[in-house]
Amino acid sequence: MAFFEARNIHKRFGSSVVLEKIDLDFEQGQISGIMGPNGAGKTTCFNVLTGRYAPNRGTMTFEGRDITGLSPQRIARMGISRSFQIMNLFDDSAVIENIMIALPEFRDMRSNMIRPVFRDKMLEAEAMEILSQVGLQDVAWEPSKSLSYGQRRALEIGVALAAKPRIVFLDEPTQGLGAEATRQLSTLIKQLRERYTIVLIEHDMRFLFELADKISVIHWGQVIAEGTPSELQSNSWVQRSALGEIA
Ligand SMILES: Nc1ncnc2c1ncn2[C@@H]1O[C@H](COP(=O)(O)OP(=O)(O)O)[C@@H](O)[C@H]1O
Ligand SMILES: [Mg+2]
């Protein structure tokens, strides 16, 4: 059994079917990639896998435990974390504060109210450790709004990592990034692979093919192709979209 499994996932909104029948397996310690055209249902798939929407049919298991239909909070507490395609940061807060409020200890401390949370040295040290994992330790006390777009992406990943996830879902992390920031993000994700199991939705094929151990192509609400990057090079849909990307 895979670390994370989705079987026969079906999701519709009213009469509009977005996911017809999705089967996915993510293995521990790997980077799994998901690609597919715009509107194929990739983000919806993440929303189902991380509990935002319950599937209309199908099951999900994480480490052998059935998580189908659990709330996003319960799923998050089991060690499943995600980033969002639309960035979600507190701009007026310092970089490190965005991480601190995402730490599980923060919630626990806030409820006892004995000491001011942002002065807590242990929390700060832990947030600093996360920031160094995403290469932002030097800008920890800068306001988040002063970050470059690429640094914001890294911070968003840091926020997802603050939950100490066992698996982390990243939705199009290169969106809006230029070539240099994309290269830096690729280096960052290679480093994170040592510690985390990662699932990555990505439209930048070069980026995805370089990073992923296995890629699933979602189209028409189904997984139409799956394999290692080299196995997928010969897939006709992948070849057409690669040509489309260069054109
Ligand atoms: N909450 C929702 N209600 C209705 N339709 C939705 C909802 N979320 C997504 N969709 C529809 O699902 C389809 C797939 O969207 P999405 O999952 O964002 O695709 P992708 O991430 O692959 O570009 C789109 O047609 C979108 O309009
Ligand atoms: Mg999307």
Describe this structure in words.
The chain has 247 residues and is α/β, with parallel strands linked by helices. It has 2 domains: 1-79 and 165-247, P-loop containing nucleotide triphosphate hydrolases (Rossmann fold, 3-Layer(aba) Sandwich), CATH 3.40.50.300; 89-162, no CATH class. It is built from 10 helices and 10 strands. The chain has helices at residues 42-49, 72-77, 95-100, 104-110, 121-133, 149-162, 179-192, 205-211, 229-232, 236-246; strands spanning 4-13, 16-26, 31-35, 57-62, 65-66, 80-82, 167-171, 197-201, 214-219, 222-227. Helix 5 packs across helix 6 (149-162). The chain binds adenosine-5'-diphosphate (ADP) and magnesium ion. The site of adenosine-5'-diphosphate has 10 residues, from helix 1. The site of magnesium ion (MG) has 3 residues, from helix 1.
